Structure formats: structure tokens, C-alpha cells
Amino acid sequence: MKIPYKRFTFIMEAEEEIHLPSYKGSTFRGAFGAQFKKVVCALKKEDCRDCLLKQRCVYAYVFESHSPDDANILGKVNSIPHPFIIEPPEEEKQRYLAGQTFSVGLILIGEAIQYLPYFIYTFDLLGRNGIGRGRGNCRLQEVHTVSPQGDTQLIYCSKTRKVESFSKECIDLSQPILSVMEGSVSNAIQNTPEEITLRFLTPTRLKYDGKLMIDLEFHIFIRQLLRRLFLIRHYYCKDSLPEAGLPGEGYHRILIDDARSIGIKVSNLQWCDWERYSRRQDTRMKLGGFVGDIVYKGSISPFYPFIEAGKILHVGKGTSFGLGKYIVVD
């Protein structure tokens, strides 16, 4: 399983006073979605599900995640993940004066990487149209790539308005999956008691048996993480090798079964309630989730590669808003 991706940082400069909420994910995601459709949609009054152009439409590819045609072979799949993640400014600052800058992170996944110019143009447009309370204007100054080591490369600036070439990154889970299929995971489980602390930085929404979870058993976390990774690879990484089993089969089943042996040592997860208004759906959406630390104890080593992948690609629902972001605490 190989998942190409690339991380970018967009540097925005306020041109007048801007007021934003403490968590800015819904603001940027909502403003971006509306502007993105204006930029790329040819038939703006058509419902995407019935549109003649949906198979070749950038907007439909990036934003419309209805149940796919082959959902019956994948189990219960009501929607598929979006191939992008907007990571809003982590600071809780709510007031930006003219001349002050802030950064917005963007992760593009698989074939969506080729659409970066659309994302750049849309961020520039949403800034000029205004964001936040009072619709304060801002300007896209620069776009940088960010490597896994934290190195940055300037690939776009407002003066030249040209996108420079860049290299992709790749999450390669082929060897960890092969180890699972060959049975080496079970041997490791018997011999390597460990601990791992996960810190959820943004509200994380994980469902199990139809219920949102806060008592996060390790097997539930791994189950949802594997499912997300599978769906991303299946729908957005067509050049990857065929998958070794469907969700619930093959290495998925082995890992989920083995994950049941991992226990919770300490949990300091807390529920964080918030909601956003969706103009497209004309409704208020509750998007609460848990944040905080949880410590698992057991044989963690076989799961590390998948946990590391989730650090990049997030986990759970609402990831395109920046939800489900976590780190591993040393």
C-alpha cells in the first residue's frame, strides 16, 4: 500500500482587520468550498450527483464524497474521505490587524496533488472576497512545501504567480502489511510490551457501532485508521499496487484482532463541542469530538507504521476541516 501525498503551507497577510474564531477549521473549509466551486464548476446550478460532467469534474472529485458505486464490496460505506486536509492556524488568536500574517496548512493526497494550482487560486480568491466575521480581506503571499523533516521550499509567490515544480512524498506500508500477512506480528505481540501516548490536538470523531466514542479502545482506533487508509488508497491512489484484502479481511482482520490485546493505561480524553453552518446543506452541523491524551499499554510495535501514517492523514470524520489530528508524545 503506497499513498502519495504532499504538505503545503499557505502564508496569508491581513489587508484589514480580520476576526476569526479560536478554532478556524470550519471558517477556512467553508469559505474554501464555496470559492472552489465558483472556480472550477462549469454547471453551477446542477446537483453534482446528477451532473453529466461529474466523472471529469475537479470539484466533484475533491468535494463530493457520496457513497461510491462499488460501496457494496467495501462493506458499509456511506461516504469516502476527501483527498485533502486543511489544517487551520493552531493559534487561538482571534484578531488579526492589517499587515499581520497567519499560515494555513494543506495536505493533498494521491491524484489530488495535481490540482494544487486550483487550490492556490481558490485561496487567493477567498482572501480577496473576505473571511471571518465582517469578511475581512487578506492576501495570499506565498506557498511553501513542507518535507517530513520540516524543510520548506518556496513554490509560489504573489509577485510571480507561478507554481514551481516539487517532489511528492509517499507513505509506504507495503512492508508492514507483508509482515502482518507473514505472521510476524503475532510473534512480536508476545514479546514486546510497550506504551504509547497519543495526543489528539483537534476534535476527533470516531464512530463504532453507530456511536461516537470517547472511551477509545485501541482496536476501535486501529479499525477506523485502517479503514481510512484503505479508502484513501482505493479511491485516490490508482497507481498503487492492488490492495491485500478488503476492510475486515486480510491484514485488516489480523491487526484488528491483535489490537484487542492492547489496553488503556491512562485516558485524559475530553469532549470538545463545536458546530458549523453548512451553506451547501443549509443546516448547522454538530462536529464535536474528543481532544487530549491517552496512553495505551501492550505490544505496539506492529502498529507504529499505521499510526505514523495517521499522524499525516488524520483519523475519523471531518478531516478536511482539520479534525482528527494527533501526534505521538515521546
UniProtKB/TrEMBL annotation:
InterPro entries linked: CRISPR-assoc_Cas6_C
Domain CRISPR-associated protein Cas6 C-terminal: 198-326
Gene3D superfamilies assigned: 3.30.70.1900
Superkingdom of the source species: Bacteria
Protein name, entry field: CRISPR-associated protein
